[in-house]
């Protein structure tokens, strides 16, 4: 059963209003299906390392229309922690069957393919 997204606080960061997602859990099967990898793949292991290092510094919704939920996250650059963070943008579809990942991209070099370690870290964050 899908859980409704509930806002608990909002933050204005770089002109974008982030609303913390609460009670929206992404399933692990949907995550693995989206990244098309096993738990042993580089994308998954590096994404988990990025998340466990505390590099996902902000994640929330920016807009919701019908069943589509637009999200934005910020993730510190692993090689340049004091540089501007990577911006991850994505869309979830929420319906009676649960949460589905529609599309994601990241401002890093590998992010246009939708499956970089930063996107992986944000999606793992959404499973917890």
Protein described:
- It is a single chain.
- The protein has 128 residues and is an alpha+beta fold.
- It has one domain.
- 23% of the residues lie in helices and 41% in strands.
- The protein contains three helices and six strands.
- Strands 1-2-3-4-5-6 form a six-stranded antiparallel beta sheet.
- A hairpin with a 2-residue loop joins strand 5 and strand 6 (98-106).
- The radius of gyration is 14 Å and the shape is globular.
- The relative contact order is 0.22.
- Residues 1-10 have low confidence and may be disordered.
- Keywords: Metal-binding, Zinc, Zinc-finger.
If helices are DSSP runs of H or I spanning 4 or more residues, what is the number of helices?
3
Shape: globular
Strand order of the largest sheet: 1-2-3-4-5-6
The rounded distance between the terminal residues' Cα atoms is 16 Å
The overall strand count is 6
Estimated radius of gyration = 14 Å
Instruction: Tell me roughly what share of residues is in helical segments.
Output: 10-25%
